[in-house]
Design goal:
145 residues; alpha/beta; Rossmann fold; five-stranded parallel sheet; 5 strands; 36% helix; binds 1,3,4-trihydroxy-5-OXO-cyclohexanecarboxylic acid; 3-dehydroquinate dehydratase activity; amino-acid biosynthesis; DHquinase_II_sf; lyase; DHquinase_II_CS
């Protein structure tokens, strides 16, 4: 299998950015744990972070054509603003899992709506870094023979 993990804007600051909300693990910590898990299951994994909407969209376009079966995405603030990201995900035919570290539903109302959720097959919010691990497990087991 082949999975793409996409992290949106400001997630490069994880570990030092509002740790009371987002935790103390860095993005490298998260990605390394995901890579370990993927390798054990014999999955090819690419982890990518971008602070730019277009960078995330380009990565989704690449995933359409390179055999990627699933995208795990934390679109960060673009969750709540980006029709372009939704359109790109709609052009991708594989599985999409949306992950948020925090429980967006108990935060400001502008975080309650997600464009990406209109496309996502599953949504995980509020489980911290554990959410990414659960998403990867779900992806792997969904494609198990
Ligand atoms: C987030 C929640 C978003 O509302 C916020 O803009 C983020 C991170 C999360 O992981 O909890 O940057 O996606």
């Amino acid at each position: 299998g082949k999975v793409l993990v996409l992290h949106g804007p400001n997630l490069n600051l994880l570990g030092s950015r509002q740790p009371e909300i987002y935790g103390y693990e860095t993005l490298d910590d998260i990605n390394n744990r995901l890579r370990e898990k993927a390798v054990l299951a014999d999955w090819d994994i690419t982890c990518l972070q971008s602070n730019h909407e277009g960078g995330l969209i380009d990565a989704i376009h690449t995933a359409r054509l390179d055999g990627t079966q699933a995208i795990i995405i934390n679109p960060a603030a673009y969750t709540h603003t980006s029709v372009a990201l939704l359109d790109a995900l709609n052009a991708f035919e594989g599985k999409v899992i949306e992950v948020h570290l925090s429980n967006v539903h108990k935060r400001e109302t502008f975080r309650h709506h997600s464009y990406v959720s209109l496309r996502a097959d599953g949504v995980i919010a509020g489980l911290g870094v554990q959410g990414y691990r659960a998403a990867l497990e779900a992806v792997i087991s969904a494609f198990q023979a």
